[in-house]
Design goal:
By secondary structure, the chain is α/β, with parallel strands linked by helices. Helices cover 36% and strands 26% of the residues.
């Protein structure tokens, strides 16, 4: 059996005295796209923050490629090979597109992602290479945030709110690129509210409600269960 790239096992995470996650578990296999879905405020971003070491889980285990990373600081988690596209993009506004991309670049063995390959994936970034980050549209900023994460040559890519607030044509472009990344063999964890797109592109889904995973299964199972979608996703 192939070992998962990422295993989150019964983690509990708090902000001060307020507990947000109650035994959250999920896993991602090599080359698999997995989603974490739920309504706002249910613990999706906290799960991502726990994986990345930004908010330490107080219990449970988080393993990346078999290594326990729960207690590692965020910079060490990133160096191991997890790339994050954060909610809100968080690009550097006073750096150019090119500077944003090379600022965190990592050349790993047989690294596929370079400035050229990222610009091939997102031609718009090549056109705007000399533009400052704060001069970009929302869609261009999201492309830049994805490109910046890819420049770390991750073995797992995490996207928090992959297409939130973007125009339909830009959303379609982002999903096309994510499908291409999945085809390349990159493991992906994605949070988004576009259930239809996620059902088309992703392999498996985890639904979270009030800090607990309440359902998990394949796209075909979720597509065939509209009641489950309505109950936990409000669609």
């Amino acid at each position: 059996m192939v070992e998962p790239v990422l295993t989150v096992d019964k983690i509990e995470t708090c902000y001060g005295l307020s507990q947000v996650l109650f035994g959250v578990s999920l896993s991602i296999a090599p080359g698999e796209m997995v989603t974490l879905m739920g309504r706002n405020g249910m613990g999706k971003t906290t799960t991502v923050r726990s994986i990345m070491g930004l908010t330490r889980a107080r219990a449970g285990a988080i393993r990346f490629e078999g290594r326990d990373i729960r207690d590692l600081p965020s910079y060490r988690v990133a160096k191991l090979g997890i790339g994050l596209v954060p909610e809100g993009r968080q690009i550097f506004p006073n750096l150019t597109v090119r500077e944003n991309l090379v600022a965190t670049a990592v050349a790993r063995d047989a690294a596929p992602w370079t400035l050229d390959t990222v610009c091939d994936l997102f031609p718009r970034l090549a056109e705007r290479a000399a533009s400052m980050g704060n001069q970009l549209s929302g869609g261009e900023q999201q492309m830049l945030a994805i490109g910046r994460a890819l420049m770390t040559n991750p073995r797992l890519l995490i996207l928090d709110e992959a297409t939130e607030g973007l125009a339909p044509l830009i959303r379609a472009e982002i999903w096309r690129c994510l499908a291409k990344l999945k085809e390349s063999g990159l493991a992906i964890l994605v949070i988004d509210k576009n259930v239809g797109a996620l059902l088309r592109v992703a392999d498996r889904h985890f639904l979270i409600e009030r800090g607990r995973v309440v359902w998990s299964g394949a796209s075909s199972d979720l597509a065939a269960n509209p009641d489950m979608q309505h109950r936990y996703l409000g669609v």
